[in-house]
Write a structure and sequence with these properties.
The chain has 428 residues and is mostly beta strands. The protein is 13% helix and 38% strand. The chain binds calcium ion (CA). Calcium ion (CA) binds next to loops.
């Protein structure tokens, strides 16, 4: 309740004041009781607060219900404990350790809330102080001076909000100022099957109207829809697609699933793509959801590792993407090697980042983590990894505008209602 009240007070009175994420290790006197689904009381409250401190978004009500149980299970899973959802001595010790780490590095940044009340925001692009955000539930949102506006859309195929699918990627045309054009990636249904497509849309008045279908029929499903789109330094549109829950498709160079695609902004295939007459730029991907380029124009992508396939788990990846290369899924994971396949630049081993949005800034890659609930920084020269932000729940995306990073949270719940934020961070 304390945390909930705090959030309400913050939203009422501190909206424009900078909020500081914690820098110091967090100390909480965790209860010594055994707590389980059905437990109630002060001990449960302290546990819920502690779980929120490391990135979960629980209501602190002292009632150990299904949400608390699933957070405990998730925590146990990530810390390689028995996954029974019961808080006892082992879970307590692991939680104390996690709190002592504080989740952030000593030079961690301060952040401000730019907008609240978002519903699973997924992508962000910025033009002259206006933020263009997609919500997975099917809204294109603009945010200006903290005000959130949802715009009507006229599309030839309705957005199918299903599982991990919905309205996902979004990017403004390089000439948006004159042509009011943008590109988006969304899930749809045809003949009872789930697909994804990439289209261009134009802002007319306050409505977004479909202009052209660039590519359709990208296999989709309840999971692994990929969905990030970005325009490269070469002015081509790059698209991440998931293998739609069918791992073999990632190795099939006739399928658009489990790939990074590259196309001209009118949807045609660039003549210098690695495979003739194909959108495929790289393959062997499971569920890539991040794309970025460094100063020298090198492309990188983040991708979710396995969650049980072949008994494999975790091993999330950050890859350096080269044209025509095979990134191994489902034949190799993590640092495994195989002839003709690329191993990742960074991988999470037995822990899980669940990496989504990826951004390059000043010699480093920054990835937004869902399960990990962190922004992780990967220094490209010394290969060091640091956590630069945590404690805000699942994080979907990070985008830099000059020296400022903008981060979207995902699935934060406030009193059972979605309350995702866009925050900005200075000093990364
Ligand atoms: Ca791989």
């Amino acid at each position: 309740m304390i945390k909930t009240l705090n959030m309400i007070f913050l939203s009422l009175f501190l909206f424009f004041l900078p909020l500081h994420a914690y820098a110091q290790p967090l100390k909480r006197d965790l209860p010594n009781d055994i707590l389980r689904n059905g437990s109630r009381g002060e001990g449960v409250k302290i546990l819920q607060q502690a779980l929120n401190d490391i990135g979960y978004s629980l209501k602190v009500d002292g009632i150990y219900g299904n949400l608390t149980e699933s957070a405990v299970k998730d925590f146990q899973k990530q810390n390689h404990l028995t996954i029974d959802g019961i808080y006892g001595p082992m879970t307590k010790r692991a939680l104390e350790k996690k709190l002592a780490e504080g989740g952030t590095d000593p030079n961690h940044p301060s952040y401000q809330i730019v907008a609240k009340g978002l519903n699973i925001p997924w992508s962000l692009d910025i033009y002259k102080g206006t933020f263009y955000v997609t919500e997975r539930s099917g809204n294109l949102v603009t945010i200006k001076d903290g005000k959130v506006v949802r715009h009507p859309m006229r599309l030839s195929k309705p957005i199918k909000v299903y599982g991990e699918g919905g309205l996902l990627g979004f990017v403004l045309d390089p000439n948006f100022g004159t042509n009011q054009t943008a590109y988006l990636y969304h899930t749809y249904e045809a003949q009872g099957k789930i697909y994804n497509r990439v289209i261009s849309v134009k802002l007319s008045g306050s409505s977004w109207i479909e202009q052209k279908e660039l590519v359709a029929g990208i296999p989709g499903g309840r999971t692994h829809n990929g969905g990030r789109i970005a325009i490269g330094p070469d002015k081509k549109l790059y698209v991440t697609t998931g293998e739609a829950g069918v791992p073999a498709l990632a190795q099939d160079v006739k399928s658009l699933a489990g790939k990074i695609l590259r196309m001209n902004l009118d949807g045609t295939i660039p003549i210098d793509n690695p495979f003739p007459d194909s959108y495929i730029y790289s393959y062997g991907h499971r569920n890539p959801q991040g794309l970025t380029w460094d100063q020298g124009g090198q492309l990188y992508s983040s991708e979710h590792g396995p969650s049980g396939e072949n008994g494999w788990r975790a091993h999330d990846e950050i890859n350096k993407i080269l044209p025509g290369k095979n990134y191994g899924w489902p034949l190799i994971i993590g640092n495994q090697k195989k002839d003709g396949m690329e191993s990742p630049l960074f991988q999470s081993g037995n822990s899980t980042w669940a990496p989504s949005g990826l951004a390059y800034y000043n010699g480093a890659l920054y990835v937004a983590g869902l399960k990990g609930a962190q922004i992780r920084k990967f220094n490209l020269s010394n290969k060091q990894e640091t956590v630069v932000l945590s404690g805000l729940g699942r994080l979907r995306n990070i985008t830099f505008d000059g020296n400022t990073a903008y981060v979207l949270t995902n699935n934060r719940l406030l009193k059972g209602k979605s309350d995702d934020w866009m925050i900005n961070i200075h000093g990364l």
